[in-house]
Design goal:
It is a single chain. This protein has a single domain, classed as Four Helix Bundle (Hemerythrin (Met), subunit A). It has a two-stranded antiparallel sheet with strand order 1-2. Helix 3 packs antiparallel against helix 4 and helix 8 crosses helix 9. The protein is globular and about 50 Å long. Helices cover about 75% and strands about 0% of the residues. It is an all-alpha fold and about 250 residues long. The longest helix is centred in the last third of the chain and has 32 residues.
Length: about 250
């Protein structure tokens, strides 16, 4: 009887990785509440904090061997809040609301793109090429919008003068998330392996430069990453044509 009770006991959840996931979701929620109170720079920074925590939960789960189906689904729901809903709402409250229905449409395109991107990712976990993501990852899409807001707030840009640029960025991130462009996952990089000394110095200098100008460097990095998808896809298609013709 005792053995049967043990077998029927409901399984619990792993605490440590899910704490990071909860932290990421709270950061996304905090970004939305900050935007509602017109603290847009704080909202942008909160989205980047969510990115850091989102990157840590999976790594912690792998290091501690605490991966679970619950954790994967919870992570997707957290990503939807932090990288789908939060950036779209923050952009809308920041500038898109002044553009009426067009601004509302743009904010929804990003939010819907995030939802579709996450749903597609979950259905392709076992079949997709681990070296690449299909479509722009939602954290990177959110970082582009958050970085744009952060730069504008930092340097006191006239919001109404850049509202059409904000509109284009918001729609573009939504469409890139559901595109078929391939983006490097960087999973082939061996962080445990040895690298030349010059590489280590270069990484240190890059980190120092990012810390000195985080809003500019983060925006440019993720914008460049977004552009890399079409380039990688075109190169891969060109190579396939060359192989067929040989």
């Amino acid at each position: 009887m005792n053995d049967k009770a043990v077998r029927q006991r409901p399984r619990g959840i792993y605490l440590l990785p899910n704490l990071f996931t909860t932290g990421a979701m709270f950061a996304g929620f905090y970004a939305m509440t900050s935007a509602i109170n017109s603290h847009f720079e704080t909202a942008a920074i909160a989205i980047f904090v969510a990115m850091v925590l989102d990157g840590l939960d999976g790594r912690v789960a792998r290091l501690t061997n605490t991966q679970s189906e619950f954790g994967a689904q919870y992570d997707s729901l957290s990503d939807m809040v932090s990288f789908g809903v939060a950036p779209g709402l923050v952009m809308y409250l920041w500038v898109l609301s002044s553009m009426g229905q067009l601004g509302l449409f743009a904010a929804f395109v990003h939010t819907a793109g995030g939802a579709l991107r996450l749903a597609r990712f979950n259905t392709q976990l076992t079949t997709a090429d681990k070296r690449y993501f299909q479509g722009l990852p939602s954290p990177a899409a959110a970082a582009i919008l958050a970085g744009f807001i952060w730069i504008s707030a930092k340097y006191h840009y006239d919001v109404h003068a850049i509202k059409y640029l904000a509109l284009i960025l918001t729609i573009s991130t939504g469409l890139l998330m559901v595109s078929n462009f391939r983006y490097s996952s960087f999973k082939e990089i061996d962080l445990r392996g040895r690298v030349p000394f010059i590489v280590a110095i270069s990484i240190m200098l890059t980190i120092a430069f990012v810390m000195a100008h985080p809003e500019t460097m983060l925006f440019l990095f993720f914008l460049g990453y977004a552009v890399s998808g079409p380039i990688i896809t075109l190169i891969m298609r060109k190579r396939k044509r060359q192989v067929r013709n040989t």
